[in-house]
Known about the structure:
Layout: H1 11-31, H2 34-40, H3 45-51, H4 55-79, H5 85-96, H6 106-116, H7 120-138, H8 141-144, H9 152-169, H10 173-188
Amino acid sequence: MKSESSAPVNARRLEIIDGCIQTFMRYGYKKTSMDDLARSIGLSRQALYLNFSDKATLFKATVGRVIERLREAGQEALGNEAEPIEARLGRAFDEVHGHSVGYDTLDEILETSVQMVGPVFDEFEVTFQADLAKALQVAGVARRWKSPRVTAELLAAQLYAASKGHKHLSSSAEVYRERMRGAIHLVCRSPEQLPSTA
């Protein structure tokens, strides 16, 4: 017999999960009640319990859905080769990190995710950085630096670290985007194209 967390996600359950993401983001896991979740999606608490037996089960399903959406959005942005590489990187980071700027609950949600689901966000980070490196490689960004030490993987790691820092330090999504545009611009230019400090 399948457990509830491994059961297929039907359209109704998926709609509930998608509707609960913002509520978990706003209040965090600990402060969110099933009443809060039911209200946020226009259901009675009883109707919510018919689909999910408890808050933990719903949270686990929500984490899985968030990871799936982040992966799809990041890959879609990076894969659009009709756009310049800087635009693709900007859109990918906005999809992956931009929407979570300004939430004080983020650390608590990530910690709870690790405890309940495992290191799924860490695993996503590794995959996303590999996707970034591939896009940078194909676009020839590392070659512009003319150094064997500057690899696409190194540039991807630097951009990802910048994004994580700006996500926590930016006061708004627009500030985050502006700072990431600067970081992306620096990475995508060769040293000869950067302004001289002399």
